[in-house]
Every structure is written in structure tokens, then in C-alpha cells.
Amino acid sequence: MTSEVEISRAEISDLDGAEALYDEVCGYLADKPYNPGWRKGCFPTRENARYFIENEAMYVARIDGEIVGSVSLTYNPSADIDQQSGDNEAEQRDILYLHIFAVHPDRHRSGIGSKLLEFADAYAGKAHVKYLRLYVWEHNSVAIRAYEKNGYRCIGREDIGLGEFGLDWFRLYERRVGDKTTCIPSAYRI
Question: Using one digit for the tens of pLDDT, what is the confidence trace for 87-98?
């Protein structure tokens, strides 16, 4: 029997767990054709996690105290910590962006990703946000299927400046907040 998934805001004390999660995901993706450029020590890193934690934007999924997933939520479309300027503030806070969405490879197909997406929807609803958005590399078929399964739809294709890493085009996915019936389970601490 699998223990219950708890999702809560990440704290500085979660840095080691976040880094370990990122390293596991990067190792898993290393030889996959759908790897969106994630490489251990390059992206995502402990410093990415620190930035989002210090800005109270990172949330972690835990099972029995172990971090098994994460997502960061901001009004800024850029996940680059050097570009977190907040310009435009995503059409006056009508849009919340998901960044560095990760699930531990040993926990794939266990529903953790869907729970994190449900959490993002519930969080956005409480913040009176109208849309959730995320960028996904156009060849990351695994992530695309997961997002579409969870009610996201492609609304565009953009070059977000990662061509030097072989990541020329990204799809912009969007979901209207509350489109699915979403309740906030007691394990979610928003």
C-alpha cells in the first residue's frame, strides 16, 4: 500500500531533498530522446531550488517524509533565475506559470505528477488566477501526454532562447483554472 502524498511549500531545510530529486531526474533523463536539456549540475540545480524556495514559490510532494516531486509557481514566465524581473507580471497576475516540474523516476505513473498539477490548480484558484501555463520542449512527448491528460492545451509554439542547447522550440500549454472539478485534499497545505 502506498502512503499518502503530502504537498506543501518547500523550506530551506528541503534543499538537500530538492537537489537529490533533481539529480535523480537528470540521471534518468540523461539518455532519453525527450530530455528537455536537464543535466546534473547544469539545470535544474540546488541554486534554482534555493531561488524558488527563498521566493516562497516552490512546492514539494512527499511520501513518508521523502521528497518525490516538486513544482515552482510564479507570475513570471521565465524559469531562469537571472531573468526573474517580473516585467508585465503575467497580465496583472491572471496567469501563473509552472516551472521545474519534477517527479522522482521511481514514482513515475503513480499519480504524483497529476497530484502536483491538481495542487497547482487549487493554489491558483485560491489566488484568483485565471490560467496556469507552462513551457514544454516540443520533443518531450512524455511530458506533453501528461499535461494533455491533465487538461492542458497547446496555445502556441515559441523560441525561448535555448537554441544553443539544442532546444529550439517549446510549446506553450495552458489550462483555465478550475476547468476540472478540483477539491483541495487535506494533505495540501496552501
Answer: 555 455 799 999
pLDDT tens-place string over residues 146-180: 999 999 999 999 888 876 777 889 999 999 998 75
Residue 2 pLDDT: 55
Q: Give, as one character, the DSSP assignment of residue 167.
A: B
One-letter amino acid identity for 120? A
HSE-CB of 177 using CA atoms within 13 angstroms: 21
Angle at 178 between CA 117 and CA 7, to 5 degrees: 35
Q: Given this model, what pLDDT does residue 147 score?
A: 95
In this structure, what DSSP letter does residue 168 have?
Answer: -
Which of 71, 137, 136, 69 has the alpha carbon at shortest distance from 109? 69
Q: Which three cell numbers stand for residue 161?
A: 532562447
Task: Let me know: does 53 contact 15? Beta carbons within 8 Å.
Answer: yes
**Sign of torsion over alpha carbons 79, 80, 81, 85:** negative
d(CA 42, CA 190): 30
